[in-house]
């Protein structure tokens, strides 16, 4: 069913075709491309700047931390200025910072530029999610979100592979230039998108109005339970993405061009999960689908622990040890992809007139946790396969607890 507000919007909003879906997916892929394409270059960056693994992980955590802080404001700004202005403005700043990274003289400057990238990238990735809900509601919104996620899911798999291929051409600096070219293409496509928030439906561009919106949404217990629960659920998968450089090179003993061993299973799981989400949009009520997917993630995480503890040893080759080590992450990626889109729509539907703010705060909680994962938790737990698997299991248990709390609260509200 089309969104109730579609009638007040330009006609192009109601005709979201393949081009719009692909553009929204490319906007969403900015995040994974920014993080994962650089992973294969870590070794060369560390060698040139004399930095160890912990210092290099800050290239991820600095990006995620600044993304998290600024994510609080991108959504409210899009509620006031319109979606396109915020997305294009953020992309321009992001591209400039990415080009500058190719000329960074030391690790400190590179980390500073990663902070700028994180602060600006959310304008595209967060607001693109709101555009989907602007265009459609109900099952149609779930299908479109799932379609975008299927395309978006390719990014974590191909980004490190592309990064490894770029390194074959020369310096690690070429990786940042390659991402800049991608960003320019995305800017051009974003310019062609329709504006999905007409002027008459925008909020005032005032500091007091923006802070008031953040306060109203942020103090909602329903929103907090959903947002934090979603963040923990996604962390069960993201810990493998954040620690990919350690997982592939140290735990599996492989090289710069071998990141596909981890990311290909992840992408297969994510695409399959997104496909299931789209196919079940008209058949399974959204809360039931989320519950089933979270339980499936719990089962996948338990299987992952068993395989990590009892599976064959890894020896740096593409043998049984490496294959068994990525079965658990594949299963987790599948079930996480099933619940991710529906739970995001649940959050956006809590605040129909402040969707941008809701998307911002939801992303904020997720990114704070992801930044901690990349900069603090991952270097600690990436000592062996079993420790990583147990950490992933712990995250999904917390997610299930919060979702159960939400369901009980909603049941009392309806009585």
UniProtKB/TrEMBL annotation:
Gene3D superfamilies per record: Multidrug resistance protein D
Return the SUPFAM superfamilies for the record. Answer: MFS general substrate transporter
> Which domain of life, per UniProt?
Bacteria
| Coarse class of the protein's main subcellular location | membrane
Membrane-spanning regions, if any? 20-42, 54-74, 86-105, 111-132, 144-168, 174-193, 226-247, 259-277, 289-308, 320-340, 361-382, 388-407
Q: Which keywords accompany this UniProt record? A: Cell membrane, Membrane, Transmembrane, Transmembrane helix, Transport
* Ribosomal protein listed as a keyword: no
Name the InterPro entries for this protein: Efflux_drug-R_Bcr/CmlA (IPR004812), MFS (IPR011701), MFS_dom (IPR020846), MFS_Efflux_Transporters (IPR050189), MFS_trans_sf (IPR036259)
Q: Give the bilayer topology.
A: Multi-pass membrane protein
For this protein, the record's CDD domains field holds: MFS_MdfA_MDR_like
**Entry-linked PANTHER family:** CHLORAMPHENICOL EFFLUX PUMP RV0191, PURINE EFFLUX PUMP PBUE
* UniProt family annotation: Belongs to the major facilitator superfamily. Bcr/CmlA family.
Name by which UniProt lists this protein? Multidrug effflux MFS transporter
* Organism whose genome encodes this protein: Brachybacterium hainanense
């Amino acid at each position: 069913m089309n969104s109730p507000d579609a009638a007040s919007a330009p006609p192009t909003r109601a005709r979201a075709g393949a081009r719009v879906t692909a553009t929204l997916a490319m906007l969403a892929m900015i995040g994974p491309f920014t993080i994962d394409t650089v992973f294969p270059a870590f070794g060369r960056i560390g060698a040139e700047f004399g930095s160890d693994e912990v210092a290099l992980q800050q290239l991820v955590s600095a990006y995620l931390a600044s993304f998290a802080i600024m994510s609080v404001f991108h959504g409210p700004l899009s509620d006031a200025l319109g979606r396109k202005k915020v997305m294009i403005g953020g992309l321009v700043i992001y591209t400039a910072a990415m080009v500058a990274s190719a000329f960074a003289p030391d690790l400190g400057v590179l980390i500073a530029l990663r902070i700028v990238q994180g602060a600006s990238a959310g304008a595209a990735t967060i607001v693109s999610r709101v555009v989907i809900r602007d265009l459609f509601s109900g099952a149609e919104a779930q299908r479109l979100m799932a379609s975008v996620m299927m395309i978006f899911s390719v990014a974590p798999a191909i980004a490190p592979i592309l990064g490894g291929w770029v390194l074959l051409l020369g310096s690690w600096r070429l990786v940042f230039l390659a991402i800049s070219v991608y960003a320019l293409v995305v800017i051009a496509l974003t310019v062609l998108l329709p504006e999905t928030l007409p002027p008459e439906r925008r909020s005032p561009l005032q500091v007091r109005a923006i802070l008031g919106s953040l306060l109203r949404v942020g103090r909602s217990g329903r929103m907090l339970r959903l947002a934090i629960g979603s963040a923990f659920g996604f962390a069960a998968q993201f810990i493998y993405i954040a620690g990919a450089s350690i997982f592939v090179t140290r735990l599996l003993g492989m090289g710069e061009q071998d990141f596909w061993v981890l990311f290909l299973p992840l992408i297969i799981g994510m695409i399959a999960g997104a496909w299931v989400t789209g196919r079940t949009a008209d058949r399974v009520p959204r809360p039931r689908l989320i519950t089933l997917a979270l339980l499936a993630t719990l089962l996948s995480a338990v299987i992952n622990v068993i395989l990590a503890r009892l599976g064959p040893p890894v020896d740096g080759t593409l043998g049984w040890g490496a294959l068994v080590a990525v079965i658990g992450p594949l299963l987790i990626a599948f079930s996480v992809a099933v619940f991710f889109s529906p739970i995001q729509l649940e959050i956006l539907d809590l605040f129909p007139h402040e969707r941008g703010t809701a998307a911002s705060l939801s992303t904020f909680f997720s990114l704070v946790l992801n930044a901690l994962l990349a900069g603090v938790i991952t270097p600690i737990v990436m000592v062996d396969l079993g420790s990583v698997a147990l950490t992933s299991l712990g995250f999904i248990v917390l997610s299930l607890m919060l979702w159960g709390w939400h369901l009980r609260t909603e049941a009392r509200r309806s009585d």
